[in-house]
Amino acid sequence: MTASAQFKRSPLAMAVLGILHLEPMHPYAIQRRIKEWGKDKVVNVAQRAALYKTIGRLQEAGLVTVRETARDQQYPERTVYEITEAGRAACAGWIGAMIGDARYEYPEFPAALSFLMLLGPDAARAELERRAQALRARLTEMDADAAQAAIMNLPRVVVLEDEYLRAVTDAELRWVDGVVADLTAGALTWSLESLVPDRDSEST
Q1: What's the rounded Cα separation, in Å, for the pair 139 and 143?
Q2: What does the alpha-carbon distance between residue 187 and residue 185 come to, in Å, rounded to a whole number?
Q3: Which of 70-74, 82-86, 159-163, 184-188 is predicted with the least confidence, judged by mean pLDDT?
Q4: Of the residues 44, 72, 159, 176, which has the fewest C-beta atoms closer than 10 A?
Q5: Alpha-carbon gap, residue 92 to 89, rounded angstroms
Q6: Given CA atoms 6, 8, 14, 20 in this order, what sign does their dihedral have?
Q7: In 73-185, which ranges are E strands?
């Protein structure tokens, strides 16, 4: 098996290859381009060390290669990378798999929901109300971004991730609001004691 076939894909690795599809770049320019295009909402590029590590792994796998080392008196030496043909094929394959395969991704929120009973109804309601407030603020921000994209007349295909994230966020908010309403009305309630088996009764 080749190194490229063994490479474990990630959103960041896919984004790096996607950016290098357009033109060779050094890592700082790749990070800046991802942020300029708003892709940092779906790809974590906050840590430049993680970006350099990913590029190094892509190079080891033969998916990118060094184009040149740029020297400028105003900046430190910068290595410019370009995508290889193997990288183009890998990028297309990853995008197809990420789009077509409905994989379990184990996000934090449903994991925490599975143990929500430990907080008790009142604390659970308070935390869900806090989440709902954050989701509303996020929707407002998303709507502002969408309005800006409309002004710029951007093609829909380049902002599909924003469209998806808004739909998911809106659906989540409606669900959270529904659970909060049930907690407030008492339609959803529990006590930890009622959920834990009575050990004395089990032993008899």
Answers
A1: 6
A2: 5
A3: 70-74
A4: 72
A5: 5
A6: negative
A7: 75-83
